[in-house]
Amino acid sequence: MFASNIRLTGIELMAKHRIKEGMDLCFLVMDIHSWGAGARIPRCLNALASYGSAAKPMLPRLRQLEADLTAHPKSKNFQSEIQQTRSVISRIEEASEPVELRGIEG
How many CA atoms lie within 13 A of 46 on its CB side? Predict the structure, then answer.
């Protein structure tokens, strides 16, 4: 229950230092069917957006996230997250400045 904050802080730190594994980790942590998703999703989306053009490979997963949130039984509760997802998709699509990624191992 309280581990989400630690995980999210780690994801934000990975995004700050452009660690490529952080992008995949965002999708694992968001988990839209678990309690607290409304707090996890915005922070993960912000982290993904900070990768800029380097996050373009994540666009299909972001589009799937948008579809999953829209189809969710409690989609009314996720309207701000759906809108934020659309915004992040647009930002990443429009990003053109190259971003150098690092791996965890070097």
Answer: 11
The pLDDT of residue 102: 93
Between CA 106 and CA 102 the distance in angstroms is 7
Nearest to 49 by CA among 87, 13, 20: 87
DSSP lists the bridge partners of residue 19 as: 102
Asked if 85 contacts 66 with a C-beta cutoff of 8 angstroms, the reply is yes
- Structure tokens given for 105: 């191992």
Dig out the tokens for 55 from the structure: 């996050």
Q: Enter the pTM of the model.
A: 0.92
* Grouped pLDDT means (10 residues each) for the chain, 106 residues: 83 96 95 88 97 97 97 92 97 94 85
Q: Say if CB 98 and CB 56 are below 8 A apart.
A: no
**Best CA proximity match to 9, nearest among 73, 17, 70:** 17
